[in-house]
Design brief:
Helix content: 40-55%
Number of strands: 0
Distance between the termini: 21 Å
Oligomer: single chain
Order of helices and strands: HHHH
Amino acid sequence: MSMMEPQQISQCWTVSEILKKYPETHQVFIERKTLCLGCYMARFCSLKDVAQAYSLEIETLVHEIQKAAINKINRDSKE
C-alpha cells in the first residue's frame, strides 16, 4: 500500500471508524439514503449491518466507500 492509497476498508469496520479515518466518505451514506450520519448506533454498526438494514449490496457499498476515500486522497495530492 502506497502513501496515496487508503487502507483497505472492510465490511466489518463500523460507520464511526470509517468516518473518523475518511470523513469524505460521508457523501456515500447520504447518497445511499442511510440515516447513519449522526446516529448513536454508528459506533456499533458495521458496513455489513448498514447493508443489511438498508437492503444494499455489501460489495457495492464497500467499493463506493473505498472509492470516495481514494478520490479524496488523489485530490489532496494534486493540491
